[in-house]
Amino acid sequence: MGIAGLGGLGSNVAGALARAGIGKLIIADFDDVEQDNLNRQQYFIDQVGRDKVDCIKENLARINPRVYVEGHRVKLDAENIPQVFAQADVIAECFDSARLKQMLVETVLSRMSAPIVSASGLAGYGNSNAIRTRRISPRLVLVGDGESGIDTVKLLTAARVGVAAMHQANAIIELIVDEIKV
Amino acid sequence: MAILRVNGQGREFAAEMFPLTVSDLLGKLRVDAATVVAEVDGQIIERDKFALTKLHDGQSIELVRFVPGG
Predict the structure, then answer these.
(1) Residues 6+ apart with CB under 8 A from A15
(2) Distance between CA A5 and CA A100 in Å, rounded?
(3) CA distances, A49 to each of A27, A31, A93, A94, A158 (Å)
(4) Which is nearest to B51 in space by CA: B18, B21, B16?
(5) Hey, is A9 helix, strand or coil?
(6) Tell me: the pLDDT tens digits for B23-64?
(7) CATH class of segment(s) B2-65
(8) Contact A49/A33 with Cβ under 8 angstroms?
(9) Which of A69, A106, B12, B58 is 20 to 30 Å from A23 at the Cα level?
């Protein structure tokens, strides 16, 4: 399992998959934990200023030490994505930026063979049921309401980002159990 | 007249609008190409090929638009 981006989506997806007992997680991000991440991301106050990859590894080890976590502190791009996630059976797109989401999904669909579970439209609060999981095509699952961006809604909450992240984790587990059968 | 299925919905396009590329279609829909993943008849079209990819009557186009937040 690959997780690209360890923000509000990725840090929550990682926790759900570790609890589900997914054996190996490949995680990638280039950021440090910041104070204003704590309103929605699965880090602790004493981790502010530290490398997100290291912090997620630590936190997952406390949840389920049997999960093997391969961490990459790297800025993902079209060139390195196929290498970083070469061993992943499913990839979770957990970026914040719309352009990076586009780049990752396009790269995975055009240059790799694994399916990708992406998210678009999860800003704001309330209206949980507008967040849906849809199979766009055989290798693309899309989560979100499709329209609530941080550019227009100006607010991200742990609750609504969390709804989307759990949709992603649930879709990944479904893919692994029903289709990939690892 | 040609009909393209865009995100599952049939849309009519006048014959004189062709050749119509993926870029032209996004322009008409006023969508920023930098935030879109496009599939034509199930085949992914990379963003740098949008301006070169001509669309034809009867094709199915899936446009996934990404908004920021995560």
Answers:
(1) A42, A59, A60, A63
(2) 10
(3) 19, 9, 24, 21, 20
(4) B21
(5) helix
(6) 999 999 999 999 999 999 999 999 999 999 999 999 999 999
(7) alpha beta
(8) yes
(9) A106
Is the pLDDT score of A182 beyond 80? no
Closest to A80 (Cα-Cα) out of A13, A4, A169: A4
Collect all residues of chain B within an 8 Å Cβ-Cβ radius of residue A120.
Answer: 64-67
At A30-72, the pLDDT tens digits run 999 999 999 999 999 999 999 999 999 999 999 999 999 999 9
Q: What DSSP state is assigned to residue A177?
A: I
- Please report residues of A whose CB lies closer than 8 A to that of B69: 8, 96, 121-123, 148-150, 153, 156, 161
Domains of chain B by residue range: 2-65
Q: Provide the β-strand partners of residue B40.
A: B43, B61
Predicted structure pTM score: 0.96
- Beta strands at A91-93 and A2-4: parallel, antiparallel or unpaired: parallel
Cβ within 8 Å of residue B53, ≥6 positions away: B21, B22, B40, B45
